[in-house]
Every structure is written in structure tokens, then in C-alpha cells.
Amino acid sequence: MPGRHLPPDHSAGDERTLGGYMAVHSRPAAFEGSDGWSYSVDVATDDTPDDPRGPVGAFLLFLRWRRVGEPGVEGHLETGFVAHGATEAEARAAAGRMTLHAVKAELDALLGAHQQEQQSSRPWWEAMREEGEE
User: Fold this and answer.
1) Which helix (H) or strand (E) holds 29?
2) Can you tell me the distance from the alpha carbon of 40 to that of 58, in angstroms, rounded to the nearest whole number?
3) Is residue 85 a contact partner of residue 131, using CB atoms and an 8 Å limit?
4) What angle do CA 45, 88, 60 make, to 5 degrees?
5) What is the CA radius of gyration of the chain?
6) pTM of the predicted protein model
7) 11, 20, 60, 95: least CB-packed within 10 angstroms?
8) 93 and 85 in contact (C-beta within 8 Å)?
9) Whole-angstrom Cα distance, residue 60 to residue 46?
10) In this predicted structure, what is the pLDDT of residue 130?
11) In terms of pLDDT, which residue wins out, 100 or 134?
């Protein structure tokens, strides 16, 4: 399916925020992660009935896109809750007020944690090889 290009509607919101960007450009925001992969982001919600901040929590869902072959999603990352609300719409709106800079920082933090996790699960011989290279 070919992509579609719609002109931005700058009256729809503040494109420096996640929700504003999606409203202005009629598509999800996208970033290059610190790992060099392309990611798009959306807001997802889940019930948090025992949370004093609100019964609905919103989190960021980053989809990692394939580099080669057919276009498609190759993986994903999820943040913890970044906002709460009394309703799903309220929680989504609160998350949508995050700046794109803050959203990118969340992605890079997830990637950093994932990279540390990967390194800590390396075979012992790889860790020893790196120690000897110093």
C-alpha cells in the first residue's frame, strides 16, 4: 500500500508534543533510536484500578520497523505508565502532552536498559575477551 502525504494542519495542535504531532501530521511520530533502528510511537492504555493517580494508565508503545525486505514491524518496546487519568481519553490526553523530546528520551532509556540487559547475558568468553582488550 503506497504511503499517503497529507499537508500538515498546524491549527490541530502543538506539533512539539506527541498528541499535537499526531494531530497536525495525521500519523504517529517516528524516531531513530540510539541503536540506529527506526521506531514509531503510539499511546496505549491499561486499567490501574488500585493506583491513586487514576484508574487508567497510559504508556508509550514503540514499534521497531524492519530495515530490509517487506515493510513491517520487527519488534516493540513499552514504557511504564507515563500518565494516568479517570478515563482512557484522559490518560491518553495526558500522555499526549509529553514533548517529543521527552518521548525520545523514554525511547533511548528503554534502549539503554535493553542494551545493558543484553550485555549482562553475554557468554563468559565474550566478557573475558572485552576485558583483555583494554
Assistant:
1) none
2) 16
3) no
4) 30
5) 18
6) 0.81
7) 11
8) yes
9) 11
10) 61
11) 100
